[in-house]
From TrEMBL:
The gene is mpl. Pathway: Cell wall biogenesis; peptidoglycan recycling. The keyword Cell wall biogenesis/degradation applies. It comes from the Bacteria. Residues 2-98 form the Mur ligase N-terminal catalytic domain. Pfam families: Mur_ligase, Mur_ligase_C, Mur_ligase_M. NCBIfam families: mpl. It comes from Sapientia aquatica. One of its GO terms (molecular function) is UDP-N-acetylmuramate-L-alanyl-gamma-D-glutamyl-meso-2,6-diaminoheptanedioate ligase activity. InterPro entries: Mpl, Mur-like_cat_sf, Mur_ligase_C, Mur_ligase_C_dom_sf, Mur_ligase_cen, Mur_ligase_N, MurCDEF_pg_biosynth. Belongs to the MurCDEF family. Mpl subfamily. GO terms for biological process: cell division; cell wall organization; peptidoglycan biosynthetic process; peptidoglycan turnover; regulation of cell shape. This is UDP-N-acetylmuramate--L-alanyl-gamma-D-glutamyl-meso-2,6-diaminoheptandioate ligase. Keywords: ATP-binding, Cell cycle, Cell division, Cell shape, Cell wall biogenesis/degradation, Ligase, Magnesium, Nucleotide-binding, Peptidoglycan synthesis. It is an enzyme of class 6 (ligase).
């Protein structure tokens, strides 16, 4: 089959493209916004990319158009597909029918931590010899690729780990992606309000999670964060599968670095990751791995060798004692936990938080009031908001962050990335941690700051004339 993927550079659709190619399909695709690491991965896989959504991409050689949820009515290519009556489907529907059918699917759902937890779970299965397939919304460092079919993809007992997003499937299918996956093991990691562009309130998202619970078979298992009231409300609406909790004393939990299930100890967690949120992610992965027969001791061994996903506290460079980090955090809760994890690591060292609030939820401004508290542990805050184009904010950054300034934290807001880059370099000094947070490419500012710091250091070391 030859498929053409609309919105191919999104993390999910890009992973789907890799899987389709590995499965023997001919794959091409298009997108309007191309940036690493996904664009790099696709090119390395030999997948042809077209910039933009032009109607001339229609071809008699294409058997099916797979449509990402970034595409809406009015898109020139999509309108031509509809006008001609050509075959199309959503990405999640294609995954469910062509990749996941017959597999033991381990789905990782939740507002936060899906990518990291999926990567942990896939690595635990890999280290235990299960050779799983996976589709993860990032590039796990242990694998170097965001998606693969698995070593034995045609075996009916093969395992597949998938990041299970609650975002809608396509403009013509407003169900959450994860209802297409038919998970046998489902992690419900946490649940907060997000995606204000498609969900009116938290209750609407809880309904979608309830739909996910309805798809898990009786012989399946739900791995549930026992600390989340929202998830308890979801389960009260119906639960037809075995359930195991984590994060609470009557389930999987940590005391210090010691792992317990109820009162039974199972070994110590020894790894390089920081933050309570990552410890919760680890509990979820350990519990899910138990469902497929992997002991917690084996899981702990695997996690001791776990390297985080790219763009999750990824060190992009160290120059003159200044460390530049790249992180995907964009929701206030994720921003809070990311900064808290870094604070635990650096102690009294200065944290320069650099934020681009560009998610659809953030652009709508529904969570702007939570940003000052989320950034409170930073020593200096730099914020960027595009003044025009698809990523333009509909609200004033400086006004939203004024409470932080009033508390004495220096806050600098910009509409120009070059100006922000210069300001960051001017403020940074040896011992600082520069934490870049965005769910987009952020104009490549991570490397630009590293390069500028390198030039600054070289200039300072030049002998006086």
């Amino acid at each position: 089959m030859r498929i053409h993927i609309l919105g191919i550079c999104g993390t999910f659709m890009g992973g789907l493209a890799v899987l389709a190619r590995q499965a023997g399909h001919t794959v091409t695709g298009c997108d309007a916004n191309v940036y690493p690491p996904m664009s790099t991965q696709l090119r390395e896989q030999g997948i042809e990319l077209t910039e933009g959504y032009t109607a001339d991409q229609i071809s008699d050689e294409i058997d099916l158009y797979v449509v990402g949820n970034v595409v809406s009515r009015g898109n020139a290519l999509m309108e031509e597909i509809l006008n001609r009556g050509l075959p199309y489907c959503s990405g999640p529907a294609w995954m469910g029918e062509h990749i996941l059918c017959g597999k033991w699917v381990l789905a990782v759902a939740g507002t936060h931590g899906k990518t990291t937890t999926s990567a942990m779970l896939a690595w635990i299965l890999e280290d235990a010899g299960y050779a799983p397939g996976f589709l993860i919304g990032g590039v796990p460092s242990n694998f170097g690729i965001s998606a693969r079919l698995g070593v034995n993809p045609d075996e009916p007992s093969s395992f597949f780990v998938i990041e299970a997003d609650e975002y809608d499937s396509a403009f013509f299918d407003k169900r959450s992606k994860f209802v297409h996956y038919h998970a046998k093991t489902a992690i419900l990691n946490n649940l907060e309000y997000d995606h204000a562009d498609i969900f009116p309130d938290l209750a609407a998202i809880e309904t979608q999670f309830h739909h996910l619970v309805r798809t898990v078979p009786g012989i399946g298992q739900l791995v549930v964060n026992g600390r989340e009231e929202s998830l308890q409300r979801v389960l009260k609406r119906g639960c037809w599968s075995d359930k195991v909790s984590f994060g609470v004393e009557d389930g999987w939990h940590f005391k210090g670095d010691q792992l317990y299930f109820h009162t039974t100890p199972h070994g110590q967690l020894q790894w390089q990751l920081q933050g309570e949120h990552n410890r919760q992610n680890a509990l979820a992965a350990i519990a899910a791995a138990m469902h497929v027969g992997i002991t917690p001791e084996l899981s702990l061994h695997a996690l001791s060798q776990f390297n985080n996903v790219k763009r999750r506290m990824e060190v992009r460079g160290v120059v003159n004692g200044i460390t530049v980090y790249d992180d995907f955090a964009h929701h206030p809760t994720a921003i809070t936990t990311t900064i808290a994890g870094l604070r635990d690591k650096v102690g009294a060292g200065r944290i320069l938080a650099v934020l681009e609030p560009r998610s659809n939820t953030m652009k709508l401004g529904s969570m702007k009031a939570a940003l000052p508290a989320a950034l409170a542990q930073a020593d200096i805050v730099f914020a960027y908001g595009a003044s025009s184009g698809r990523d333009a904010l509909g609200w004033d950054l400086a006004e939203a962050l004024a409470p932080l300034s009033a508390q004495g934290t220096p806050v600098f807001c910009f509409h120009d990335l070059a100006q922000m880059q210069q300001a960051i370099v001017e403020q940074a000094r040896s011992g600082d941690s520069i934490l870049m947070m965005s769910n987009g490419g952020f104009g490549g500012i991570h490397q630009k700051v590293v390069d500028a710091l390198t030039l600054q250091l070289a200039a300072s070391q030049q002998p006086a004339a």
